Amino acid sequence: MDDLIKNELMQEEPTPFHKQLLSHVKALVEMSAQEMSHHYAEWDAADLTYRGKREPDKADAAAKARGEPSKMVVPLSYAQIQTFVAFCMSLYTQRDRMFELVPKAEDYDKAAKAGEAILMRDLTQNVFEAKEFQFLLDVARFGLGIFKTAWVNEQSLEDVQVPAQPVNVGPFSVESQPQTVKQMVTKYQGNRIYNISPYRFFPDVRLPLSRFQEGEFVASEDDYSVISLRQMEADGVVAGVKWIKPFDTRIRDSSTRATRRFSQDSPLTTTKANASSQSPGMCVVTEVQVVLIPSDFKIDGKPMGPESTPTKYVIWYANDTRIIKCEPLGYKHNMFTYDLAEFSPDMHNLVNDGLAATIDQLQSVITWLINSHVTSVRKVIQNMLVVDPAGIEMKDLVERKPVLRMKPERAGQGVDKFIKQLNVQDVTGNHIGDALTLHSVLQVVTGINENALGQFHAGRRSATEARNVNSATAARLKMIALLIFRTALEPMARKMLSNLQDGLDVETYVEVLGESADPTAYVQFTKITKADLVGDYDFEIFDGTLPSERGLQAQALEEFMTNVAQNPQIIPMLGFDPLKLMLEWMELRGIRNPRRFLLDQVRAQLMMQQLQAMGGQPNGQSGQPGLLNTAGGTDGNGAGAAMPPTTVAGGPGAGGIVK
Question: Are 343 and 393 in the same domain?
């Protein structure tokens, strides 16, 4: 942060510059909050439905007192959302690395592999599986999921061994003793990924969410302890923390600020947060990434910055009252660091429905049908009786005694004259069947049916029919998963890679997958810095092939290779290279870098000698040609090239095979 701006923020009383900048960014955030708050009630309802919660009424309390079941929410939304999240995660993680890079020239292959490895390192450091689950859950539940990325250089004070140094003592040189000193050591330099709640996300609502990167600003809120902010101030990240005022309850009660941070259990509203008088408490920090013209904001008559063109700045203000950070955003990619995905992107609506809202009405009807049936059955089994008090001891009946006594004067006149069970008919007998019918309609609406849930529909079905049904079931889910990847995950990875190329100064060990046939070089740990990431490469097009579909492709190749092995004389006619077919088959079966299994020249010659010693002949010299005749090199166009029967195909790093 610039020293001039830091000095302004350190003043107890906000300066004119401070007031002008705070007023500007707060007005933008309030404009967004006014619009976004219209969706909070819908999101609350979707969340309660997903969690299967409802407010109990008097009938529920009475039923609970009698030990009977109360009304419930049928957790269909939970099942549908969990299935969708599981489908997307399995689709994104089916390969060894989520983000794959393709070099545009052979010289950049090493840089692309290093880029893949360092991205994987950052995902591992962030425990990305947990963050991805939360992101996908928000997409399905609220219709909107948000990531934020930031470059961090995390350090810690550790004991470092200083080696012995030569010291000149008169005409002699002696070594000093090794010493242990305290030094700041970089623990992690890389990207941090954060989940942002839709309740705390404030984009420029003058544009649809699909174009939020074109907006003037984007903002989000988070809770911070004042202790952590003071540590940031000591590190030079923020300024003026000690002048932060407590949050204004009038703002808290405002409808435009009715976010989840002010729930009954919020640390900002409960007394538990300040149980100790020594605790400085919590505060709300709003981060605004906004496009400013620095020359428009004056500090003592001087412009905030030299730029007279729009520049992205990041501004933090605490408890809506004070700016504690203001500096250029400073990322090489020059984009807002947020990435978002919608379940059903539609440019004609600012915020679109998620999976929970799509099926809400159907689930409500199903829930009502089942609850009404439970209520009706409860009434039927309650033994409603018509009693004549003149013949029955009512005390026994009220106290539910196992034996009901007749009054002495009515003895011998027959029980049926004084007590009879009322015949009540259950009119909700068909409600369960109606609920099952609506459940089938719900699955048609979402596309998440028995096959997606891992359950086959009742009845006999051929293998081909089952395969077609599975493919059709996954088609709609794959479309949504692809849109999520393209709109949020891939842009996030591009920003992460740009940050690494710009800021990775510390040498980092990563696991690099090599292309050599040498097994010892297949997996190696390599030191890399940002210089190793320089190259011309791009992200590979997302492969939305399901694991089951890859298995079918492998099965088709296996059948083809079996037929070719039985009739090898047709190989020259077809022009297919059996070696390439075999490598593709192994990759589809999940075997990484199958070229490492190829024969080298020494091993191939040794096998030929062993074969000759056993009295056999290499393929190609007998009457029946074999697969090894054409399993090697290429003619430059990808087709198998004919080679003499005693040569070994393949080149350096690719292994070889006997010809």
Answer: no
The confidence band for 508, taking pLDDT boundaries of 50, 70 and 90, is confident
Q: Say yes or no: 29 and 117 in one domain.
A: yes
Output the six-digit token pair for 371: 């609850």
Residues 655/600, Cβ–Cβ less than 8 Å = yes
In the structure encoding, which two tokens stand for residue 599, read together? 């024969």
Claim to verify: residue 331 and residue 253 sit in the same structural domain? yes
Same domain, 147 and 213: yes
Could you read off the pLDDT of 614-638 as tens digits, one per residue?
775 554 444 444 444 333 444 434 4
Q: Are residues 342 and 407 in the same domain?
A: no
The listed range with the strongest mean pLDDT (335-344, 422-431, 463-472, 542-551) is 335-344
Any idea of the CA torsion for 381, 382, 385, 390, to the nearest 10 degrees?
150
Taking the CA atoms of 96, 98, 104 and 109 in sequence, report the sign of the dihedral they define: negative
Which amino acid, residue 502? D
Would you say residue 103 lies in a domain? yes
Check: CB of residue 52 under 8 Å from CB of residue 72: yes
Range of the domain at 408: 385-421
Asked if residue 389 is part of any domain, the answer here is yes
Quick one: 268 and 399 in the same domain? no
Cβ-contact 495, 333 below 8 angstroms: yes
Give dist(CA 356, CA 86) in Å, integer: 16
Q: Which of 350, 266, 259, 362 is nearest to 49 (CA)?
A: 362
Q: Which two tokens stand for residue 317?
A: 């203000």
Same domain for 339 and 412, yes or no, is no
Domain count across the chain: 3
**Both tokens assigned to 262:** 């002010």
3-class SS of residue 112: helix
Give the CA distances from residue 256 to residues 40, 149, 200, 308, 377, in Å, rounded to whole numbers and listed in that order.
Answer: 10, 27, 12, 34, 45
For every residue of 373-396, DSSP letters joined together read HHHHHHHHTT--EEE-TTTB-HHH
- Alpha carbon distance 332, 346 (integer Å): 30
């292959």: which residue's tokens? 109
Q: Is residue 394 part of a domain?
A: yes
Q: Which amino acid is at 172?
A: F
Q: CB under 8 Å to 327, separation ≥6 — which residues?
A: 1, 2, 5, 313, 314
Token pair, residue 615, equals 């009295």
In the three-class reduction of DSSP (H, G, I as helix; E, B as strand; rest coil), residue 97 is classed as coil
179-196: strand order across its sheet: 179-196, 144-162, 338-342
Give tens-digit pLDDT for 91-145. 888 777 888 888 877 777 788 888 888 899 999 999 999 999 999 999 999 999 9
Dihedral sign (CA 493, 494, 495, 498): positive
Distances (CA, A) of 95 to 91, 109, 542, 651: 9, 19, 11, 27
Domain's final residue, options 374, 394, 421: 421
Question: Higher model confidence: residue 479 or residue 54?
Answer: 479
- The residue among 568 and 121 whose pLDDT is bigger is 121
Q: Residues 307, 405: one domain?
A: no
Question: Is there a domain that residue 203 lies in?
Answer: yes
Residue with tokens 């009879």: 420
